[in-house]
Amino acid sequence: MGNSVLIETSARHVHVTEADLIKLFGEGATLTVKKMLSQPGQFASEQKVTLVGPKKEIANVSILGPCRKATQVEISATDARTLGVDIVVRESGDIKGTPGIKLVGPAGELELTEGVIVAKRHIHLTPEDAKEFGLEDKQVVSVKVDSECRSLIFGDVVVRVNANFAKAMHIDTDESNAACVAMGTYGEIIK
Q1: Which residues on neighbouring strands pair with residue 145, listed in sequence order?
Q2: Spatial CB neighbours of 177, under 8 Å, sequence gap ≥ 6
Q3: Residue 170, helix vs strand vs coil
Q4: Phi, then psi, of 167 in degrees rounded to 5
Q5: φ/ψ (deg, to 5) at 133
Q6: How far apart are alpha carbons 73 and 101 in whole angstroms?
Q7: What domains can be seen in the chain, in order of their start residue?
Q8: Strand pairing of 152-161 and 122-125?
Q9: Distance between CA 91 and CA 95 in Å, rounded?
Q10: Has residue 2 got a pLDDT over 90?
């Protein structure tokens, strides 16, 4: 299984700046670790917000930590339709020109003018993993998933290489459900 990668489902979540965290949760607010995530140093926090779109809202959306340089909302295409915002597929951090949304926290609200994305499916690799797989940063590959009920091939998967990453592929809940991905599901990288 030299060219296989663990597939993880990345549910809807929000990344916030320290300033936006204070606007939403009040002076002195910090993110409290609820659960560490597979990527080193990343965690799901106890803090949650409500996303308010033109059509509907989605409550209890987790904030992932630590704080970032820009506030960003990552949702599925289904969530985008529910909220009434355009579906814009982008890599994390690439938010220029994306839809905005209102975030509501216990101490205040925040009107984002941009920052809502459907995250492009991607694979996190260390430089050593990338070398072993014969892959490069920003390369686009496909990943074949054999599941018990709905095997499929994901195309347009971006390879992201960084020494601080842990080897894993991230897909959103729509994609995970389409392939019946369960805990411990692996995919085969196809160049």
Answers
A1: 152, 187
A2: none
A3: strand
A4: -60, 115
A5: -85, -10
A6: 9
A7: 12-118 (no CATH), 121-190 (2.40.40.20)
A8: parallel
A9: 8
A10: no
Contacts by 38-42, CB closer than 8 A, 24 or more apart: 38/8, 38/166, 38/168, 39/124, 39/164, 39/165, 39/166, 39/168, 40/164, 40/165, 40/166, 41/66, 41/164, 42/66
Could you give the CA distance from residue 16 to residue 30 in angstroms, rounded to a whole number? 11
> CB of 6 within 8 A of CB of 165?
no
List, in sequence order, every residue forming a beta bridge with 14; answer none if it has no partner: 63, 73
Q: Residue for token digits 């091939």?
A: 153
Following CA atoms 64, 74, 8, 171 in sequence, which dihedral angle do they give, to the nearest 10 degrees?
Answer: -170
Task: Write the pLDDT tens digit of every residue in 112-140.
Answer: 999 999 999 999 999 999 999 999 999 99
Query: Cα–Cα distance between 178 and 81 in angstroms, integer?
Result: 17
Q: Return the residue matching tokens 């080193």.
A: 40
Give me the amino acid identity at 54: P
- Residues whose CB falls within 8 Å of the CB of residue 45, separated by 6 or more in sequence, listed in order: 31, 32, 33, 34, 62, 63, 64, 65
Q: Tell me the pLDDT tens digit for each residue of 64-78.
A: 999 999 999 999 999
pLDDT band (50, 70, 90) for residue 147 = confident
Evaluate if residue 1 carries a pLDDT over 70: no
